[in-house]
Q: What sequence folds into this?
């Protein structure tokens, strides 16, 4: 894409170096643990060692003797203020601190407040809690058995461990397609519980001013405005109404969805600040983070695909059990309890589909955050892309060819999917062609055949995903009733520089750069002259935050629309300055000129100055605009990923030799940043595909509760990524953009899983659950008699 | 309490610390140099990497008293007279950072390594940075940045 603006203006399509870099490169980022307030105290948390049990007593006396310890807060203390429970973003409930029962390992049980980090930790070690352990329910299938204990007996009317049932599609029509189909393939698969593992953990500094009754909370949140509203709802009855709450999200050291929910630690820190009248800091350590919050996925899926004998897909059926742990504390849009799982028909045209999800409670920490995923899209894509490969292997067709024969053709867009989505635009064959060309697909298939003849194990994995992003249109999308629009407020100063504020919050995505480029594109002001701010509820316009790849589709669009309003006003000013009619003006980025007299022109900076100094009669002074953007539809980015793996027959180790990712996210704002997003997403795809899982033993013990056991990819397991793109603009987004942050996290795991299965398919292997660890592979090699 | 003295980014500091005080907490909280971050409890992530007597170390696994008498360099000491270190420049030019949280440790590990091996291969850079986790960049551009810095420093 050739940029429309010069390198000086640096609008869309320029790989502008990031404006946020200088502070991070010089150690001047302002992350949550960097914030220190006068008189600040430290809070540390006593956590449950058991997954389920009664609390018979909490003895704080020894803790209170520890030098520096000022207070110990328990559930009973919070109960006095009715703050011991809180709502989740899914209208479920969750304990802040327990009064009598613990429901998962690492649950917050009490909080110690002290004058230093170390004293607070000493206090935690000195709190004595007497537990009476009970037999936990860990397996979600067992949670549905009739004799399973009802875990959430605290909820009125709850008689079993079911949370909700969700379904989409025409079941009867789909069943009929399956009855008539030539071929039906089935796979059971588990996309297990994983963890976002952002390198910065969660934390906050709560600062309650008892004189003014005003609360400022600096917190690691991706959605500061929504969180402020939630806090007002939780604590309004103790006087914290919304105008007295300010939430500030400082620099965030990675979010990935884990910093959307409200965790008990935040609320306890706020309560402690209110009780003690001092600022209170709470920072999770890594083990707390990996054991208590920020968990994702955990979908057990049974997928079936119906097809004609030649591989034309006719129908899809998926039955899912979703393990949410102790509470439904995910952050999906309220009408979508299973998120956007109904994108599961993916890139393929078919007659019918039916998907259902049942959610259950277990004695695990709350899970299901939308980890770098637009609400369950990862699970949906994994399911579809795996079962498509099963079909290809069953009928003996190349997996890429089978996909091509089933793609929704580009002429069919906008495309109505059988599960109700209107895909905005797509050209799936173009992405496939480019990926095959980049990786040399036919040569790889020849190499694989030669290697197979020599008993070497090499696999080629293909994934052609379609995502659904940008939640979302207000008619369908809300969180706790708040519509999922987003916002921008742009002010141009007299000297032609600008400040732009947004309702989202960057966690590394580079908003300070890309949003400035959007304003530059629309106004012709150099992006270098546009200061971008987010994250402070006192100054930024209200928005729902950054997750689900929604920033560009919603707030980015709002920025463009606000800039266009400003340009409209500037046009009137330009006409006034040149004493011509507005219809006689032509716009090019940064300049209005008179049609037919190009030497007569004024710059956008001239117009800005005039907006404060020399206005047309009757015009309101100033040059600013605010836009709340309610998207007309979601966006549907897509891509084809192809990877090559080699399997060590001696160890079962899978090595990703090459990985080609061709993405189509519509028009691109900053190619460098988009490519960086893809690189990061791919690495967060390789992790769950090969290494990452949070498993529990039957007693509910987390078996991957530190970075010694939760294996995120290092530079050694990560290949040099090969990226490419095609461009199919979104027809409804003002900039034609679609969003890109999560495509690679969604597309990479099935590509890798498909490659491993492809390497082993001749041995009769049709499926392996992720993570595909060396021991899983070695067991199969051993069973098939090919282990070395 | 123990009296420690050390030179941090060329400035001599003396302070009384509890013996158990981690060097990273001493640097962050007593010296108020918050560029060095903490990402884990198990010496796994490397966010807290600094140079101690020229060697890169994870400062969450060193006690402040062990650094008594040492010369310490943190990310705040990388630039000199306002000029960025070649590694800082290369991270910026090659988009080697996103959220920025691992970046100080990553750069300090790179600086320490390039001192040992001024002309590494890509594979050597990957091996050298294995102890520093990044969740945003996929390492691709970090590796590219370190190789570019090596070129810059060698030329």
A:
């Amino acid at each position: 894409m050739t940029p429309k603006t010069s390198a000086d203006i640096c609008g869309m399509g320029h790989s502008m170096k990031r404006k946020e870099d200088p502070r991070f490169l010089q150690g001047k980022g302002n992350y949550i643990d960097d914030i220190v307030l006068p008189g600040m105290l430290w809070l540390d948390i006593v956590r449950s060692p058991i997954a389920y049990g009664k609390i018979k007593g909490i003895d704080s006396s020894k803790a209170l003797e520890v030098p520096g310890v000022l207070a110990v807060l328990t559930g009973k203390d919070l109960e006095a203020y009715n703050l011991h429970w809180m709502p989740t973003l899914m209208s479920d409930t969750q304990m802040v601190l327990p009064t009598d029962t613990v429901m998962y390992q690492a649950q917050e049980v009490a909080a110690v407040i002290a004058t230093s980090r170390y004293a607070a930790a000493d206090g935690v070690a000195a709190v004595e809690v007497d537990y009476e352990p009970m037999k936990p329910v860990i397996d979600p299938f067992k949670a549905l058995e009739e004799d399973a204990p009802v875990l959430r007996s605290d909820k009125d009317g709850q008689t079993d461990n079911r949370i909700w049932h969700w379904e989409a599609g025409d079941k009867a029509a789909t069943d009929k397609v399956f009855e008539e189909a030539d071929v039906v393939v089935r796979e059971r698969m588990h996309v297990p519980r994983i963890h976002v593992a952002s390198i910065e953990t969660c934390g906050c500094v709560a600062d309650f001013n008892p004189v003014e009754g005003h609360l400022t909370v600096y917190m690691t949140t991706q959605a500061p405005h929504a969180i402020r509203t939630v806090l007002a709802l939780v604590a309004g009855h103790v006087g914290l109404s919304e105008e007295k709450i300010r939430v500030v999200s400082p620099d965030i050291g990675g979010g990935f969805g884990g910093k959307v929910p409200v965790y008990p630690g935040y609320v306890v820190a706020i309560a402690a600040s209110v009780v003690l009248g001092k600022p209170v800091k709470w920072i999770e350590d890594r083990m707390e983070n990996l054991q208590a919050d920020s968990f994702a996925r955990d979908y057990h899926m049974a997928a079936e695909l119906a097809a004609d004998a030649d591989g034309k897909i006719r129908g899809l059926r998926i039955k899912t059990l979703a393990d949410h742990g102790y509470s439904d504390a995910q952050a999906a849009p309220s009408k979508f309890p299973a998120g956007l799982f109904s994108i599961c028909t993916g890139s393929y045209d078919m007659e019918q589909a039916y998907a259902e999800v049942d959610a259950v409670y277990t004695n695990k920490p709350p899970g299901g955050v939308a980890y770098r995923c637009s609400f369950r899209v990862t699970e949906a894509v994994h399911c579809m892309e795996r079962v498509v490969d099963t079909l290809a292997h069953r009928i003996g067709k190349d997996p890429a060819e089978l996909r091509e024969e089933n793609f929704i053709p580009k002429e069919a867009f906008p495309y109505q999917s059988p599960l109700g989505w209107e895909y905005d635009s797509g050209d799936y064959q173009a992405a496939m062609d480019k990926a095959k060309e980049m990786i040399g697909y036919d040569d790889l298939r020849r190499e694989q055949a030669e290697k197979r003849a020599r008993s070497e194990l090499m696999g080629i994995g293909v994934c052609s995903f379609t995502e659904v992003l940008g939640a979302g249109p207000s008619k369908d999308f809300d969180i706790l009733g708040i519509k999922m629009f987003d916002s921008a407020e742009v002010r141009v100063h007299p000297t032609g520089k600008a400040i732009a504020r947004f309702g989202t919050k960057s966690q590394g995505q580079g908003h300070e750069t890309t949003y400035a480029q959007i304003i530059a594109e629309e106004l012709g002001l150099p992006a270098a002259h546009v200061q971008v701010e987010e994250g402070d509820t006192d100054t930024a316009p209200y928005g729902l935050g950054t997750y689900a790849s929604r920033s560009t589709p919603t707030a980015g669009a709002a920025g463009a629309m606000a800039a266009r309003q400003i340009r409209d006003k500037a046009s009137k000013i330009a006409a006034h300055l040149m004493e011509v009619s507005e219809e006689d003006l032509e716009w090019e980025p940064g300049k209005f000129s008179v049609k037919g007299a190009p030497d007569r022109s004024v710059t956008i900076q001239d117009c800005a100055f005039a907006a404060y100094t020399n206005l047309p009669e009757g015009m309101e002074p100033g040059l600013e605009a605010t836009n709340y953007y309610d998207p007309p539809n979601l966006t549907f980015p897509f891509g084809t990923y192809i990877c090559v793996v080699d399997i060590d027959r001696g160890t079962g180790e899978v090595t990703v030799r090459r990985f080609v990712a061709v993405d189509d996210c519509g028009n691109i704002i900053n190619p460098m940043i988009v490519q960086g997003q893809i690189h990061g997403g791919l690495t967060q795809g390789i992790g769950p595909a090969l290494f990452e899982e949070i498993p529990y033993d039957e007693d509910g013990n987390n078996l991957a509760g530190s970075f010694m056991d939760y294996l995120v990819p290092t530079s050694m397991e990560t290949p040099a990524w090969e990226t490419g793109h095609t461009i199919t603009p979104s027809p409804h987004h003002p900039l034609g953009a679609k969003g890109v942050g999560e495509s690679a996290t969604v597309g990479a795991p099935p590509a890798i899983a498909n490659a491993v299965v492809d390497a082993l398919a001749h041995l009769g292997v049709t499926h392996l659950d992720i993570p595909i660890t060396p021991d899983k592979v070695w067991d199969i090699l051993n069973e098939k008699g090919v282990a070395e | 309490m123990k009296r420690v003295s050390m030179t941090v980014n060329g400035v001599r500091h003396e302070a009384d610390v509890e013996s158990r005080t981690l060097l990273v907490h001493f640097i962050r909280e007593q010296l108020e140099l918050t560029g060095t971050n903490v990402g884990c409890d198990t010496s796994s992530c490397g966010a807290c990497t600094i140079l101690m007597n020229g060697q890169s170390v994870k400062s969450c696994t060193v006690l402040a008293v062990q650094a008594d008498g040492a010369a310490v360099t943190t990310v705040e000491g990388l630039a000199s007279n306002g000029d960025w270190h070649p590694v800082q420049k290369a991270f910026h030019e090659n988009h080697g950072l996103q959220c920025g949280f691992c970046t100080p440790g990553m750069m300090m590990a790179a600086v320490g390594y390039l001192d040992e091996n001024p002309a590494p291969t890509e594979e050597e850079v990957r091996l050298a940075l294995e102890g520093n986790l990044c969740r945003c960049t996929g390492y691709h551009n970090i590796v590219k940045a370190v190789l570019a810095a090596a070129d810059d420093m060698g030329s």
